[in-house]
Amino acid sequence: MSLTYGKTRWKRFAVVMVPSIAATAAIGVSLAQGALAASFNVSGQQFKVAAGHLEGDGFAQYGSVDVEKAGPDHAHSVAVSSFKSATINKLCQSVVLDAPLIGKVSLNINAGDDANKPVEATNLYIDLDDLKADATFTNINIGVATGAISKGNVNPADRAAAQKLGAGDQFENSFAQEADHASLDGVQQTAWATSAGTFKLSGLHLAVKKGVSECF
Asked: Which terminus of the chain has fewer Cβ atoms in its 10 Å neighbourhood, N or C?
């Protein structure tokens, strides 16, 4: 089964419990059921990621909370999206910082502009809270339990254990969704963290610019 979704925003995904990454955007979990659990410690700096096209195998997603280094009072609900493997064309990542004596400074990373040399990633995880894209999912399962994920490469209990955050058994009943394959075009997302087992950036270009210069 293949499903296709047009451009939309995070809140609409959350309402209808439908996924979309780069992955995707509906947390689809219940605080009342204790489904949200601390996942990663993050710096507290949100960043933007855009991609012209993404193809990924072994997709899965679940809801979680990223906690800033400042402590649990600084936490952000996120959708953790993962791929066993993915290729990305026209990848852009940007973050804006406040530099002493200088003001706003932007860090931009671009890669995969050559259609024949895309960015390649394995065991890719993206902690995001907003996404727009045109997305198609193949053999999708919506509303599976986190502990029953079979297609994707998500293991939230192991991730939490690595951060010594004591996820406990609550992950077993968390809402999750998965698909054999995902294809996304025109990806625009804001995220708190990205990690990968391997990340091959073909045609990498990193630039630091004074002022605000973002991917979108």
From this structure: N
User: How high is the pLDDT of residue 105?
Assistant: 93
pLDDT at 40 over 80: no
* Better-scored residue on pLDDT, 186 or 21: 186
pLDDT of residue 64: 77
User: Residue 82 in contact with residue 152, Cβ under 8 Å?
Assistant: yes
Give residues with Cβ within 8 angstroms of 198, minimum separation 6: 120, 121, 122, 123
* CA distances (Å), origin 4, targets 27, 89, 95, 194: 19, 20, 30, 25
Q: Is the dihedral of CA 8, 25, 87, 195 positive or negative?
A: positive
How far is CA 52 from each of CA 60, 114, 152, 168, rounded to the nearest angstrom?
21, 11, 23, 38
Tell me phi and psi for residue 117, to 5 degrees.
-135, 70
- CA–CA distances in Å: residue 33 to residues 29, 47, 146, 196: 8, 30, 13, 30
Contact 216, 187 (CB under 8 A): no
Answer yes or no: are the C-beta atoms of 44 and 68 closer than 8 Å: yes
Copy the structure tokens of residue 199: 């990340």
Which residue has tokens 């406990």? 168
H helix intervals, the chain: 10-16, 156-162
Cα separation of 5 and 136, whole Å?
6
Residue 83: phi, psi to the nearest 5?
Answer: -135, 140
